[in-house]
Amino acid sequence: MHWQGVRMTLLLRRAFFYLVTAFAALSLNFLLPRMIPGDPVSRMLQRFQGKLDPQAVFALRALYGQTDEGLWGQYVDYWRRLLHGDFGVSFTNYPTKVTTIIGQGLPWTLGLIGACTILSFLIGTLLGTVAGWKRGGWVDSLIPVSTFLTSVPYFWFGLIAVYLFAIELRWFPLAGGYTPGVEEGLNFPFIDNVLEHAMLPALTIVVSSVGYWLLSMRNMMITTLAEDYVLLAKAKGLSRRRVMNSYAGRNAVLPSLAGFALSMGFIVGGSIITEVVFNYPGIGYTLFQAIGGQDYPLMQGIFFIITIAVLGANLIADLVYVLLDPRTRRAA
Amino acid sequence: MTTGTLEHDAARQPTEAAADQVRAARFGALRGLRSVKVMVGLVIVLAFTLVAIFGPILVSTDPSAVSNDVLQGPSAHHLLGTSHNGQDIFSEMVYGTRVSMVVGFVAAILATVLSLVVGLTAGYLGGVSDEVLSLITNIFLVIPGLPLVVILTGTMPNAGELAIVIVIAVTAWAWGARVLRAQTLSLRKRDFVEAARASGESTFRIIFREILPNETAIVAATFLSTVIGAILTQASLAFLGLTSVTEWSWGVILYWAQAQNALSYGAWWWFVPPGLSIALIGTGLSLMNFGIDEFINPRLRSAGIATKRARKRARADRASRARGPVPPVVPAPSAARAVSAPAVSAPAVSVPAAADAGGSAAGRDDIVLEIKDLRVDYVTANTTVRAVDGVSLALRRGTVLGIAGESGSGKSTLAYAITRLHESAAEIPTGQILYTAADGTRTDILRMSERELTDFRWEELSIVFQSAMNALNPILKVGAQIEDALAAHRPSMTERQRRGRVAELLTMVGISTDRATAYPHELSGGMRQRVMIAIALALNPEIIVMDEPTTALDVVIQRQIIDQIMELKDRLGFSVIFITHDLSMLIELADEIAIMYAGRIVEQASARDFYRAPSHPYSRGLIGSFPTLSGPKRALTGIVGSPPDLHALPAGCSFNPRCPAVTEDCRVREPVLLPLRSTDGHERARVACLLYEKTEPVAAAGADRS
C-alpha cells in the first residue's frame, strides 16, 4: 500500500517540524531568565533569607547563569535536566518540586481549557455550516453579536459573568475548581462539585470564542458552495443533508481545521487568563502566581508544559486533517 | 493540421461564468467598500482615534487626582463615576484610550512591517531562504503566544509601554507573514511580474512596485486584526498587573477595578467602560475587515443581499404560479417551427401528448426538448443584463444539437438555464422548456416544483460540466460520486446492485473498474472527464447537456472523449446538447447547429448545410477563426473586435460594430430569425441578418422575437 507510506512521510515531516519547534521554544525558555536585567539572584536570596539550603542556592544560581560554567555548558546541563524531567524546586512553594505543582494544575487546565476549546470549535463549525448553507438565515443574524463577543476580552467577559451569575443571581459558585473541604476523589459528589464550578468558566470561554469559528466556517462554506462539485451534487438530486455534509461541509472544514491547529497556541494562551478570573486551580493561575512571586523555575516548567501540550494538540489536528483530506498524501 | 492553435485558443478562452464573475466583482467591490458594515466600523474606529488624539487635551481633570468622592456612581460631575480613592473614571478612560490605542497601533505597525519583510522575502526569493523563514514563521505561530508574552513581561518588572509594544510585535507578526508569503508566491508567477523580471527591473523595484500594491488589501486586513490582537494583549497584560500600573490604559483601569473588588461593591461604572471600549474598537476593526474580506473574496459579497432577494422572489414566483391562471402550454406540435400554433391551455405539470402529433413519429420530428422564447437576466442591485434573449430551439431524439459562440454569447447561461442550475442572480422572466418523455408525456421544466425538478434531473436530463477537476468532489472516491446519484434516485437498489452499476458505467466510458476507489486527484484529466460522463449516464437519461466538456483537455484526449461520447450516444440512444466555442468540432459531431451572439441565436442550420455555406457574417467569421480537424487547409481569418459588452449593446444588430458586411440599416434595425431557402425551396438555415431580409422579405414565421 504505497499511499500509506506517503502519508507516513508527511506525518514524519510534521513530527520533525514539531521537534524543531519544541527545540526552539525550549531554548528560548533557557535564555529568558538570563536576560533579566540586574541581579535577580541576590534579590531572591534576600527574600528567602536562610530558608534555602546550599543545593537550592546552587540551583538558583545555575538557573540565572551565575555559575563558572560557560553558556554552552549551562545549555547542555539545562537539556540534561529537562530530559530527566527535573525542573527544579519552586521558590514560592519551597521546597515543593515544580513537577508536583504542574502535576496538580494540569488536569484542571486540560479539563477546562482543552474541553472548551474543542467544544467551541465543534459548535462554531456546526453553526457556521448552517449559516453558510442558509445565507441570510437566522444563524447569520448571530454574526454581529458573535463578532462583538469575540472582540470582548476573555477576562472581562468572565468577570462580568461572575458578577451577574455568581454574585447577583447566585446560579454558580464564585470561584475555584471545587469547594474546599469536599473530599477529593472519583466519587459522584466531588465530580458534581467540580462540574458545578467548571460550568461558568466553560460558558464564558465557549461563548466568547465560538464566534470566531462560526465566522470562518461560514465564509469557507459560502466559498465552497459556489464550487462546481456542489452544484453537480445538487443536480444529481442528492439529499440536502448529503450535499451539505459530504460535499460542502467536509471540504469547507479543512481550512478551518488547519486554522484550528495554528491558533491553538493563541486560544490556549488567552483562555489561561480565565483561570485567573475564576481562581481556577489550573496551570494558568499557577503561572500568574509564579510571575507574582518571580518563581522562575515554575515559570520555565509551565511554559514547557504549555508548549508541549499545544504542539501535541497540533499534531492531533494534523492527523485528523490527513484522515479527512485524501490529497494530503500528494503534498508529501 | 495546425492543432496547436486550437489547443492554445481552448486554453485561453475564459469561461463565460468566469467572465460574469469578474464583471460582478468589479461592480460589487465598490459597493462592498461603501457597505453599512464598513461605514459603521470606520465611524467607531475614527471616534476612538479622535478621543485618543484630542481627549487628553480637552479633559482637564487629572486621572490620578485623588478626591473624597469615593465610589460614586455616574453623575454630572463625574460622568463615569469615581474609583475607590475618588479618581474620576471618565478622565481615566480618556487618558487610557490614548495609551491603549497607541500601544495597539504601534505594535501592529511594527508587527506588520516584520511580517511584510519576512513574507515578501520568503515568497519572492523562494529556495533555502523560504524554507528557513517559513520554519521560523511556523515556529512563532505554534508557540503559545500569550504565556510567552506574560513571561517576557514578567522578566522585565515594571516594563514601560515601549517594551510591551516590542514584546507584542515580536509575538504577533507570524500570521501575517504566512499569509503574505502565500500571496507573494502566487503573484510571483503572474505574467506582469514575469514581464518585469524579464525586462530587467531590480528585485527591490519588482517587490515594491509590482507585488506590494497587489497585496494592499491583505496587508490592510492583517494590520487591522493585529491591532485588535495587540489591544487585547496589552489589556490582558495590564489586567494581570504586568505593566506599569500607574500609566492609565484600559487594562490598568480594569486592573485597579479588579484589585479593589469593584464588582463586589456593585461599581459597574468602573468596570464596564474599559471592557466595552475594547470590545467596541475590536468590533469596529472587525467590521472594516469584513469589507476587506468581501473585497478579496467576491463570493462572500453576493452572499447576503442577492440571495435573500432571490429567495424572496422565488417564493413570490411560486406563490403566484400556484394561484394565478395557468399559462398555456403548447401541446407537442408536429412542426416545432410553426410558432403560430394556437395556444391551448393545459395543466402546468404534465400533459399527455396529442395522440400522434409527434410522439409516434421517430426521426425528424421526434422532439425530445423544445425551448421557446427563453430569456435569462442577470439581476444586480441596479442593473439587469439579458444574457439569453428570446432563444427558441428544438432537440430531436437521439441527435446532437450544437450551440456555439464566443465567451459572453450566453451559451453557458443557456445550458445552465435548461437544467435550471443557473445562479441565484439569474432570473428567467419568460420562456418554456418543454420536455417530452419517451412515453409522450410533456412537461415544462421551468414550471416544475423543486421536488419534481430533483426527481427529473439526472433521471431524464443530466449535465457534464466544463472542468471535471472542479466538478468532482476532491475528498470522495469517484465510485462513491457515481453511486450517490443512484442511491438518491433508486432507493430500492441494494448496495451490491449499485456497485455493479458503477462498475458497468466505468467500463462503458473506458475506465477499469478498480479505479472506482480512486480519488479525483489520482486520475488524469481525460479520466476525470470520463468519470463525469459516467456520472451523467448513471440513470440512463434521455438528454445530456455538455458544457464544453473537452475544453480543458489536450487535442488527442479531446478526440478520444468525443469518439467515446458519440459511440455511447449511438448505443444508448440519448440526445445531446453540446456547447462549445470550437465550431470545427461541432460541425463534425452535431446534427444541428445554432450560433449564438450577444444572447441571441443568429443562425441555425443542419450541420451539413452549415458547413457547406454558413450564412451569417458572424458564423463565417467563427468558421474562419478555427482550423478544421480534418479537411483542406485554409487561411485563418478571425473576427475583428472583442465580444460584446452585454451592459451596452449597440443599437440595431448587436454584431454591427464587428461585421464586415455592415450597412447603415444594420445600425438602426434589429434583424429577426427568418428561414432562408435555397433555390429548390429547401430551408437550408434560419438566419437573423438584414442581408437576407432584403432579398427574401418576411414571409414565414417570424414570431421568434415577439
Describe this structure in words.
The complex is a heterodimer of chains A (332) and B (706). Chain A is an all-alpha fold and 332 residues long. Chain A is 75% helix and 0% strand. Chain A contains 13 helices and no strands. Chain A has helices at 2-31, 40-47, 54-63, 71-83, 98-133, 142-151, 154-168, 188-225, 228-235, 240-277, 283-292, 296-324, 328-331. With 706 residues, chain B is an alpha/beta fold. Helix content of chain B is 50%, strand content 12%. Chain B has an eight-stranded mixed β-sheet with strand order 8-9-10-4-11-12-14-13, sandwiched between helices. In chain B, strand 13 and strand 14 form a beta hairpin. In chain B, helix 11 runs antiparallel to helix 13 (268-296), helix 12 (250-259) packs antiparallel against helix 13 and helix 13 packs across helix 14 (298-323). Chain B is elongated, with a radius of gyration of 34 Å. The chains are: A mainly alpha (332), B alpha/beta (706). The interface between A and B is large, with 82 and 81 residues.
Largest interface, counted by CB within 8 Å of the partner chain's CB: A-B, 82 and 81 residues
User: What is the oligomeric state here?
Assistant: heterodimer
Estimated share of beta-strand residues of chain A: under 5%
Shape of chain A: globular
Mean pLDDT of chain A: 79
> What is the percent of helical residues of chain B?
40-55%
Q: Name the helix and strand elements of chain A from N-terminus to C-terminus, one letter apiece.
A: HHHHHHHHHHHHH
User: How far from one another are the termini of chain B?
Assistant: 44 Å
Tally of DSSP β-strands of chain B: 14
> Termini separation of chain A (Å)?
16 Å
**Coarse shape of chain B:** elongated
Low-confidence stretches of chain B: 1-30, 303-308, 320-364, 696-706
Rg of chain A to the nearest angstrom?
Answer: 24 Å
**Order of strands side by side in the largest beta sheet of chain B?**
8-9-10-4-11-12-14-13
Describe the largest sheet of chain A. Answer: none
Continuous helix count of chain B: 25
- Show unreliable segments of chain A: none
Helix content of chain A: over 70%
Q: What Rg of chain B is obtained from the alpha carbons, in whole angstroms?
A: 34 Å
Number of strands of chain A: 0
